[in-house]
């Protein structure tokens, strides 16, 4: 009697037909290649970072001031890339973020959450491998900072 059972193993990443991983196959194929602009990755990273609870804003004070002016101009838009710089290669991306944390948030935990969300979002949407996400916390936003802004907007004369 002969044994007719066979065992199969799942293909490893290097065992793909053309030697490329699934991610690489999406960006390069026989039909052509796909390139992703730095601005695309930058916007994804900015939105992903702002989605994390405890992030007050992205960017330093100068870039935030410029962004506030830009938003007030008719037709001006929110700059989702503010405080984000990226380097994008053919298969990989590296991200640098400048952010302002809400007061009271554990900054190390916040940075870890931001890093995870940015990596997950970029890799899922672009297929690029994120090699690093460097985070610089430039400031801490205090609740009374909002009260100062509201007081300054009241008319001085009636």
UniProtKB/TrEMBL annotation:
<dbReference type="InterPro" id="IPR005531">
    <property type="entry name" value="Asp23"/>
</dbReference>
<dbReference type="Pfam" id="PF03780">
    <property type="entry name" value="Asp23"/>
</dbReference>
<feature type="compositionally biased region" description="Polar residues">
    <location>
        <begin position="1"/>
        <end position="11"/>
    </location>
</feature>
<feature type="compositionally biased region" description="Polar residues">
    <location>
        <begin position="19"/>
        <end position="33"/>
    </location>
</feature>
<comment type="similarity">
    <text>Belongs to the asp23 family.</text>
</comment>
<feature type="region of interest" description="Disordered">
    <location>
        <begin position="1"/>
        <end position="33"/>
    </location>
</feature>
<protein>
    <recommendedName>
        <fullName>Stress protein, Gls24 family</fullName>
    </recommendedName>
</protein>
